[in-house]
Each structure stands twice: as C-alpha cells, then as structure tokens.
Amino acid sequence: MNKKIKIALIGCGQWGKNIARNLLEMKALMCVYDPESNQAKDFTLKNSLPDFSLNEIYSNKNIDGVVIATPAHTHKDIALEAIKNNKDVLIEKPFCLSVNDAEIISKNAVKKNRILMVGHLLNYHNAFIEMKKNINDGKIGPIKNIRAQRLALGSIRNIESVIYDLSAHDISMILSITKELPIKVIAQSIHHNSNIGPDAICATLFFSNGVTAFLNSDWMCPYKEHRFSVIGSKGSLIFDDTKDWNNKLEFNPSIINLDNTINYLSSNSLIIEKNEPLKKELETFVNSIKSRKSPITNYEEALNVQKVMEMIEINLDKN
Q1: How are beta strands 200-206 and 116-119 bridged, if at all?
Q2: Sign of the dihedral through C-alpha 270, 214, 197, 176
Q3: In the predicted structure, residue 77 carries a pLDDT above the cut 70
Q4: What local confidence, expressed as pLDDT, does residue 261 receive?
Q5: Parent domain of 259
Q6: Model-level pTM?
Q7: Where are the alpha helices (H) located in the chain, listed in sequence order?
C-alpha cells in the first residue's frame, strides 16, 4: 500500500497541462506524451522527465496508470491498448463518442480487472458534494426538478458536439442525484457553426420517480453561466460555479401555500471548503489504483452518461 503510484499522461493540450501540473505536485507523474504539443516537450525538459514513446508507456511495468487527455475520437484505441498492457485508465471526458465504444472499453477493463475511470470533474467539486449531502439530508424535501445551465462563448469543436463537450458534465451530475436513467428525452438543438453536431441544445429528461431535469448547453452564448439548481418541496439549492467560494452554493427555503403559491424565504450561502476538483479527481484515481476500489465516476457511471448523451442525439429536433 506504500508503493508510489506512477502515472503517464497522454495528451498535453489546454486541459492536459493542468493534469500534468497536478500529477507532478502529487509526485505521481512518470512522463508526458504528446508529439503534437510543445507544452509536452517543454514540461518534460523542465521537470527532467523521461521522454517515452507511446509503445514505451504501454510496455513499461513501472507505470501503473494512464490518464488520457487526447481528442475524444482517439480515446478508444489508446484506452484499449493501455488496458491490454495492464494499465489502469482515467479518460478525461467525454468517455468516447458512442455507447458501443464505451461498452467495448468497459468490457475489456472488467476482463483485465483494471480500474476504469472517466473525468466527470464536477463530482469532485466540494460545492456539488455539499449539495448532494444537503439533498440526502432532506434539506429541500423531495426533488421536483433539476435545472442545468452551461453556457459560454468558447471553442467550437470539429470532432465532438456541444453534447459531448459541455452537456456531459451536467448529465453526470443529474444522474448522480436521480440515480437512474431517464425514461424519456425531448431535445431541441441549434446548428450554426459545427459540422459534427449541435452548437446548442435544450433537453428535458423525464425520470420514473417523477423528477424532471432541464438541460441547456451552449458554446455560442455571449455570456458565461455555469449554474446547476435542484428544486424540492421545501426549497432549492443552487450551485453557481461562476461565483466566488463564499457564494458557490446557495440554499433558498420556500413555503408552498394552500392556494399553491410559493413564498421564498431569505436565501443563504452554505459554507464550502475550497478545493481544486481536478486534483481531487486525480487523487481519487491514484487511491483507486492503490485500493482497487471503484471510484464514483467509474465505467458504469460513465456508460450511463454516454447512454443519455446518445438519447439526446437520437431525439434531437434540429433547427
């Protein structure tokens, strides 16, 4: 249990450099591989890391796990080769681009008894963890609906649609709360810039327990909004990741009157301990390799997210 876990990072782009930094701080980084990134070369030289090829990463018995932070269409082949060579694997979201590929990767991981984790990052955010604790403690009563807004004017990808880039985060959080797949999905989309899929979607997910979730993802929006709200019979919890840590999670108590009107009482911000979700995610991966215990965002959770993304795609009413 005292063995130092060593991780290889494959992919060192905009997000990969943050992974590299955290793994280095954790003293878990063995090497960084990305032949198309000057950041990878600079990071390797600066920190005196070995310059391994991809095949050397796969065959090196001192490397316990691999973090894959490459474009989504490459995830399947890299993950399968890593698993084949007895590496535990963390794939940054999205898992992949089809349920079929997700199932193939998962089956191989189970067969080889490998940890397979997907980077649904916000499950490791202390504000969301506290939100779920309050929900489970009955603070807002039975859940009525969930609302997820993830809007920004950001990069428009040419390989994955906004569903896989932005919606994956909120779908993961919704499923973490409902603990079941939706029985019905209605979705609308806007296609303006991307050739691969929608640039914006509005989806409604219906669950057998009566909960309805509204999902709005848009990478063309001229303003930024990252807000996730859960509304119950006794109030609501609002997780707003654009606010400072003192105000990221807010509780709004309410009273439903006999005439079905609602009185909202004074809202208050809940105390959240500041954390870096990415570091917590990576620490979870390393601890899972040590303990052989499945993480929260394991392959089963990731498969369910993949299924909902595909349900949204299938049910799109395109504009």
Answers
A1: unpaired
A2: positive
A3: yes
A4: 66
A5: 123-275+308-318
A6: 0.93
A7: 16-25, 38-46, 54-59, 75-84, 99-111, 126-136, 162, 168-178, 277-291, 299-314
